[in-house]
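[[Encoded backbone]]
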Amino acid sequence: MLGITDLPLFVGAVFLLNVTPGPDTAYIVGRSVAQGRAAGVMSSLGVSAGCCVHALATAFGLTALLAASPIAFSIIKYAGAAYLVWLGLRMILTTFRPGPGDGTATSPAPADTSTRGLRALFMQGFLTNVLNPKVILFFLSFFPQFVDPKAGHQAAAFLVLGAIMIVMTTIWNTLVAWLAGTLTRRVSQAPRLKCWLDRVVGTAFIGLGARLALLPR
């Protein structure tokens, strides 16, 4: 079908990749733990939107061109690393805001669940995924294995495979976000515990950024 080969193997591989914790999963869990289910779900949808960009780029050859350019690769790598570090620092610094009238640190305010707040969470998840060169390399190396090089509709094959992966990934990430947010809802009733939890998650984001910056080509 459209030059796709070994489709069941592709589906199985995507499933195993989804259940194996990675940077996207860590980011989504971090958002869910720190800000609740809605934040985690919107972050998950943002990550999926980022995967749509990568799928389109792979289908039309843009990913290969980007991976072949050391300068472009480095720009995306360092931009993505800086963005993750910025998110982590902002999460940590907000926990040091003084409480009302007592000068003590408190946990940040609950996640903004307004349309604007949810849109911001979506865009953060989107940028985290789009600015990750590891995802670019993954699409470039993984997808061609399941497309017949002699097929006349390779772009369509890449798009179909991308759609399958995005649907599976969205379902899994949304489930992870929902479960992580549900298990930590009671934490919001303990401000000091949530304060330290936010600092741990922020530190994890900084670690992910540092790891991304050190990623070799």
